[in-house]
Amino acid sequence: MHTGVNVLGVLISPIRMGDALRAIEKWVIERRGTYVTVTPAHAVMDAYYDPELRRFFNASGLTTPDGMAVVWLLRLQGHRHVERVYGPDLMEEVCRHGLERGYRHFLFGGEQGVAQLLRTRLCDRFAGLSIVGTLTPSFGAVSVEEDLAIVDKINAARPDVVWVGLGTPKQERWMAAHLGQLTAPVMIGVGAAFDFLSGRKPQAPRWMQRIGMEWFFRLATEPRRLWPRYRQYPWFALLVLSQITGLRRFPAD
Q: Domain for residue 252, yes or no?
């Protein structure tokens, strides 16, 4: 279990982008097997309802503050240096940081064709970037044989970083289940970054991201899919208030 700030039982790493880059570089050098989760408020709520998922978040190498609500909450608790470590930004910064270090990347996830498009976009943006493979898993349950084939393909490519774009909570479950099976030292679950950075879906303007209104932009673009996620936010605020005032305790088990 990593150290972090307890938010409804989820240990959020009080970090900046540079801290994440240094940690990932250290793990790549040491060939240490671990994974990174990016964690906005809706992921905290998923973990609040699911103790097993909460354990997966808390067993990560880093659980980054992905949403501004989480960033503001950590700052309110005295961690004033904290910055948002947002999935798409983290992906771009690790690609940039790893260029001169020779990082080998593998893209796992997305809908059909998205990982290949993302590979093209990233290689166009970062000349010399080494993306050694892409793979889109079948939708739904995967057989034992299919899973072994996935592991074999990823390991055969010898990546340093495996980017997992399956969405929360599927990507966290997948990374926890495959820790020790993959030879790559780092897995990073980045969810919608596959869609955003491939150009498949639009990102909220930076000013909306900075003021914590990205959720509104995304809800307006995908109301049917995202309404169940964002309707939890008032309940998230009430639970956090109960934690801050000491009315309730949320153990990070």
A: no
Chain Cα centroid distance, residue 96? 18
On whether residue 156 sits in a domain, the answer given is yes
Taking the whole predicted model, whether its pTM rises above 0.70 is answered as yes
| Tens-digit pLDDT profile for residues 173-218 | 999 999 999 999 999 999 899 999 999 999 999 999 999 899 889 9
Phi, psi of 186 (to 5 degrees): -140, 130
What confidence category does residue 62 fall into, taking pLDDT thresholds of 50, 70 and 90?
very high
Judging by beta carbons within 10 Å of its beta carbon (0-12, 13-18, 19+), is residue 2 exposed, middle or buried?
Answer: middle
Task: Give the rounded distance of the alpha carbon of 227 from its chain centre.
Answer: 20
What's the total number of domains in the chain? 1
Domain of 181, in residue numbers: 5-244
Among candidate residues 116, 71, 89, 108, the one with its CA nearest the CA of residue 18: 89
- The Cα–Cα gap between 123 and 26 comes to 24
The tokens for 11 are: 């240990």
Give the count of alpha carbons within 13 A of 4, CB side only: 29
